Amino acid sequence: MSSTEVLDLKGKKVGEVELEETVFGIEPSKGALHTALVRQLANARSGSACTLTRSEVRGGGRKPWRQKGTGRARVGSIRSPLWNGGGVIFGPKPRNFSQSMPKKMRRVAMRSALTVRKDDIVVVKDFDSVKEAKTKAFNQILKDLNLVDQKVLVVLDFECESCKHVQLSARNIAGVKVIHASNINVKDMLEADKILTSERTLGAINSFLKTEPKEKKAKEPAKKAKAPAKKKAEAPKKAKAAAPKKEAKPKEKKTSTKAKQDKKES
To answer: Which of 10, 69, 111, 203 has the greatest number of CB atoms lying within 10 Å of its CB?
Structure first.
């Protein structure tokens, strides 16, 4: 298992922290990184561009001149796309550019990005010494950590009061971006020159990414409501079948009228 140095805000080494091999030591997947980056850039597009067609442009209801006899080409509306001020042919319309990506694949992309940028992560013990939001004070911290004139991504968990001061102090510094640990993404990690975080935040990232997302359980098919009714209907039939059968009486043979008369005469 690999490890990295833990510094104080003055740039002195105060210890080491272990890096989870399943998060910071995997084989980077270029395909997952590319897909995650394209997805993030696509989801950031607003897709609000909109142009008017000839039916949406105001005016143009009257025919400019008669169909024949003027020597000019036939025209039905001054809002034709061929005219200045007319509609736009096949212009952009509002649309959704967002793309989907499986959760497991997103985790693989995050782990790949952390593995690639493992050597550029600067871990400090904590930011508890930052008691107020001062840009000058945070600039001094960057100087002590040798992070001046670089693109720095600051990752915080915002579980302490000083994290809010760090965010307010860093927002006016060019090239410095502060994000929450749960919002860490591939694009910001690949664009930054250095990644600055605390020991506690690094532990939260380790515990979050070393586990796989839980899969949703498939819903069981609903039971039919008519099934119990069938059982009720079958019950009396079974009761009738179980009851002993009555012995059938022998049927008397019917005699014809001619036979009766013959008996009387005899």
So the answer is: 111
The domain spans of the chain are: 3-47+101-209
Third-level CATH fold of 3-47+101-209: Ribosomal Protein L4; Chain: A; (3.40.1370)
User: The dihedral of CA 4, 154, 139, 129: what is its sign?
Assistant: negative
Compute how many other C-beta atoms are within 10 angstroms of the C-beta atom of residue 151. Answer: 15
On the question of pLDDT at 220 being above 80, the answer is no
- C-alpha 150/C-alpha 215 separation (Å) is 40
Of residues 212 and 36, which shows the higher confidence score? 36
Cα separation, 54 vs 45, in Å, equals 27
Q: Write down the number of H helices and E strands in the chain.
A: 9, 6
Tokens, residue 218: 């498939």
Query: What is the residue-averaged pLDDT of the chain?
Result: 85
Q: What CA–CA distance (Å, rounded) separates 14 from 5? A: 8
- Give me 142's structure tokens: 């960057």
Nearest to 10 by CA among 143, 110, 109: 143
The pLDDT tens digits of the residues spanning 64-115 come to 999 999 999 999 999 999 999 999 999 999 999 999 999 999 999 999 999 9
Residue 219 token pair = 């819903």
What are the two backbone dihedrals, phi and then psi, of residue 40, each rounded to the nearest 5 degrees?
Answer: -65, -40
Task: Write b or e for each residue in 119-139: b if 16 or more Cβ atoms lie within 10 A of its Cβ, otherwise e.
Answer: eebbbbbbbeebeebeeebbb
pLDDT in tens, 177-193: 999 998 999 999 999 99
Place of tokens 């079958």: 234
